[in-house]
Amino acid sequence: MMSTKRQQKTVQSCDIVKRKKLNIDSKRKFYTHFEDLSNEIIYEIFDYLDIYHIYEAFSNLNKRFDNFLVSSTFPIKINISSMSKTNFQYYYTNILIPNKHRITSICLSNLFIVDFICSSPRIILTFIQLERLILDNIQLKYIQNIPNHLISLFNLHSLTISLIDKIQNKNNFYYSIFRLSTLKYCKLSFESYIRAKPLLISSNEYSSIEHLIIHNESTLDEFRIVLSYLPQLRRLYWNKLFEILRISTSFDRSYFDANRWERLISSYMPYLRIFDIQHNDNSYDQMTCNNLNNLFISSFWLKHQWFFTHQCYSRGYGKQINFYSTNPY
């Protein structure tokens, strides 16, 4: 009798173990391990990571990932913001140089690394597949000759430059950028001296830029001249300033010249849909304020359905005009 009970308990225990094992096996079927992912999905994941972190995580992990890092052709993005000199030397020697033919994007903001790479612009020329270059918060001395060298990078279509010091000659700076024949996107952030020499109007040289962002105080004359270099421009953002044009300016009365705006838009922005302007001037007389009622009322403005108004008021010890769009859309 006791033997029979022991046998029953043994059978029940075995059944419980089997059921638990089956449950575990069935749950495992719903688990996906990273190494089970296809190459295509892993490439997609790597696209969000800097190559330095990819090497740190997957180097010498197994043969498959070693092949990814050494023999694969997936594009590499470089984003160096903070890194010690020792780590960068290893990074440069063991990662950047062996993979320079696969690098498509570089973002530099570390002063030491910018100094290392930009002090000799020819280093950038080794990245023959480079498509995007971001130079963030750098000194002017490091980019004096870089644009001239970038001409040889035929895949470069996106350029972002942010300077921490003032430009003496915007003429040369703009011209060096506009000469990059494959550029489609360009973002420039810089300060310049007020009396800087303006760019000469283009007669036979044009840029391929389609999307331009400029953070810099500029005159209307400079704005008009820059546009003469950009026949393919589709999107423009100028100075906290094509189908869309938004401008916020101060202290330059040439922005009140409606006839000049009409010629500028007709010649260089024939597809403009939205014209949104706000202009402030803190020095005016009553005649100037009254004359604003007769501006921007020609058939050109009525045809586009762009309307404007203004306010004239005293502020502190001075007087101010606030001129702005009422129906920019």
Automatic annotation (TrEMBL):
Q: Can you tell which superkingdom this protein's organism belongs to? A: Eukaryota
Name the record gives this protein? F-box domain-containing protein
